[in-house]
Amino acid sequence: MALMPDYINLQESLLKVNATMEASEAHGALCGILCAQGSADVNQWQQHVVGVQEEGNVLMGELADELQQMYLATIASLNNEVTDFQCLLASDDDKLADRVYALANWCQGFLYGLAAGGIKQGDKMPQDSAELMLDFIQISQAVFDDEDNENSEDDYMQLEEFVRVGVLLINEELQPVKLNKPVRTETLH
Questions:
Q1: Is residue 15 assigned to a domain?
Q2: Please, are residues 152 and 96 in contact by the beta-carbon 8 Å criterion?
């Protein structure tokens, strides 16, 4: 299974090419597209992430590899029965303000991805997914300008887990897994 690219390296690569999205936002957008459509065209998603680039941009080659790695790892984890899906966010070692900023960007990207994937405001959606999308809108506007403390850390961890599980629920409601039930073949004597 493909591994998710390193957040800091990807963030730096995106900054070098003046991409339109940051690392967490790019991952959120990919997840939103996947939840909306069940699949994503990697080239179209990359176009959303990097915007218009000069042809022959050498830095784009390395970035394209990192984005491809993210694409493969995300598809594998989002559709995995073990639910090892994680949002690509700043490290636990980073300042809490930076992590809140990354989570807000991730949610902004996710909402963008849902829209890019064809889900429009006002579309009829399952109730839980619709409520989660409203929550994600609020989280996408979050800012943190207070000192780090234990309660803030706990609140952030709960919010991050809420988003992670929310994405899995939205994905399941919009792209239900078709379980293949084994065919029973009994011989009657």
A1: yes
A2: yes
Token pair listed for 178: 């078709």
If one counts every other C-beta atom within 10 angstroms of the C-beta of residue 112, the result is 19
- Dihedral of the alpha carbons of 16, 19, 21, 26, in degrees to the nearest 10: -80
Which residue type sits at 63? L
Number of domains in the chain: 1
Residue 180: predicted pLDDT: 42
Whole-prediction pTM: 0.88
pLDDT of 189 above 50: no
Q: Count CB atoms within 10 A of the CB of residue 188.
A: 3
Question: Would you state the pLDDT for residue 157?
Answer: 94
Nearest-CA neighbor of 113 among 166, 163, 39, 62? Answer: 39
Nearest to 103 by CA among 65, 135, 77: 135
pLDDT (tens digit per residue) in 119-161: 987 678 889 999 999 999 999 998 886 665 778 889 999 999 9
Q: What is the mean pLDDT of residues 110-120?
A: 94
Q: Residue 12 is part of a domain; what is its CATH number? A: 1.20.120.740
**All residues at 6 or more sequence positions from 105 whose CB lies less than 8 Å from its CB, including other chains:** 22, 24, 25, 28, 140
Residue 49's φ and ψ, nearest 5 degrees, are -70, -45
Answer whether residue 187 is part of any domain: no
Domain range for 168? 7-174
